Amino acid sequence: MSTFKAPKGTYDLLPPDSAVYLAVREAISAPLRRAGYGYAETPGFENVELFSRGVGESTDIVTKEMYTLTTKGGDELALRPEGTASVLRAALEANLHKAGNLPVKLWYSGSYYRYERPQAGRYRHFSQVGAEAIGAEDPALDAELIILAVDAYRSLGLRNFRLLLNSLGDQECRPVYRAALQEFLRGLDLDEDTRRRIEINPLRVLDDKREAVQKQLTGAPMMRDHLCASCTAYHEQVRELLTAAGVVFEDDTKLVRGLDYYTRTTFEFVHDGLGSQSAVGGGGRYDGLSEMIGGPSLPSVGWALGVDRTVLALRAEGVELALPAATQVYAVPLGEEARRVLFGVVTELRRAGVAADFSYGGRGLKGAMKSANRSRARIALVAGERDLAEGVIQLKDLGSGEQRAVPAGEITAAVRAALG
Ligand code: ATP
Ligand code: MG
């Protein structure tokens, strides 16, 4: 134990659990890579204004959850609380949208920071894999991203997740709806904070998790009934494409999500085994964001899936991922000469693509074999003076316990054959 602990609301990823996180990131990104999304990486911090403008002044993320700092040079920065604003900023800065090949499709994976009340599934440092398709307004693109997320969850073996789907309308129909909703909300019995929210971002009141608020929302005007003709047609196409792809969804007219920039298609993936932190991922269309951060009009759509909660969901369903063995072969040298020879064999095996490890520290047979078993290797290679004099290495199958002598020059081939 050291004097220090991981900061409140954070945790460390260490073996063996860390392998599951890597596998989840890999599984989420694999469908994206197959669909033409290129990898993007942006700084862990940005100018604070990118988020206050891009995510929205009235959101919890900006008002309560952002880690901000002033640098020695006087810059106002924030640790990134989400990925979309940064990735769009990067794409605009590099003029990717001018290369003549829209949409620009990017995926990313990394750490995000929010000053939240830590609890199961809610941390101050967490990890997301995200995707953005920038610069095209096409229902097939919205559907593509949703299908890719569903395929990612399915490839992990998750079953108990649900897709909630909604449309938030556009610049034409949303203002009309917003006004109607405001009028309804102003008539309710709500606290000061919520009353203020009615004026700034009334749609967010629909998202209020408190029962006392939810009860009063029965009969509230719904976006669904206010969508303009083009938004209705767009949404209908998204739904048809999803259905054709075998993706099941639930229409959730109250789904607005926590970020201000969403338009039209909005969705969230929830998992029923996670208690109150049930959202494992979410996203939507954000046609106005580019202009909000000083760029041209670039209708776009994207999502971010939470890696931490996906791992919790796997646990909740009892899914064991088939992870590649960390070590397939474990070498146990007995004596100096054997150390030299087996170290060479281990190096050669690794170069041949076999995961091999070595008993370091000059330990005796018993201790070394214990480590071999603990490493969960399938094969142990043992050599002592007598073996070397005979030009052989003992190849032991740690599953069956069977052991045979293999000529030293054939050991790599024999190991590969034994591993199948
Ligand atoms: P919530 O409603 O649970 O606060 P959110 O709407 O703030 O979620 P998004 O900003 O949409 O979440 O982020 C996408 C995903 O990232 C979430 O669905 C969730 O899986 C994950 N996520 C968000 N905040 C956290 C956090 N503090 N700890 C762990 N995972 C998180
Ligand atoms: Mg949140």
UniProtKB/TrEMBL annotation:
InterPro entries to which the protein is assigned, alphabetical: aa-tRNA-synth_II, aa-tRNA-synth_II/BPL/LPL, Anticodon-bd, Anticodon-bd_dom_sf, His-tRNA-ligase, HisRS-like_core, HisRS/HisZ, HisRS_anticodon
UniProt cross-references to Gene3D superfamilies, sorted A to Z: Anticodon-binding domain, Bira Bifunctional Protein, Domain 2
Highest taxon in the source lineage: Bacteria
EC number: 6.1.1.21
A GO cellular-component term linked to this record: cytoplasm
Record GO terms (molecular function): ATP binding; histidine-tRNA ligase activity
Pfam families: HGTP_anticodon, tRNA-synt_His
GO biological process: one example: histidyl-tRNA aminoacylation
Localization of this protein: Cytoplasm
Segments forming domain Aminoacyl-transfer RNA synthetases class-II family profile: 1-324
Residues that hold L-histidine according to the record: 82-84, 114, 128, 132, 257, 261-262
Keywords of the record: Aminoacyl-tRNA synthetase, ATP-binding, Cytoplasm, Ligase, Nucleotide-binding, Protein biosynthesis
SUPFAM superfamilies: Class II aaRS ABD-related (SSF52954), Class II aaRS and biotin synthetases (SSF55681)
Catalytic activity: tRNA(His) + L-histidine + ATP = L-histidyl-tRNA(His) + AMP + diphosphate + H(+)
UniProt record similarity statement: Belongs to the class-II aminoacyl-tRNA synthetase family.
Quaternary structure (record): Homodimer.
Name of the molecule in the record: Histidine--tRNA ligase
Organism the protein comes from: Streptomyces xinghaiensis
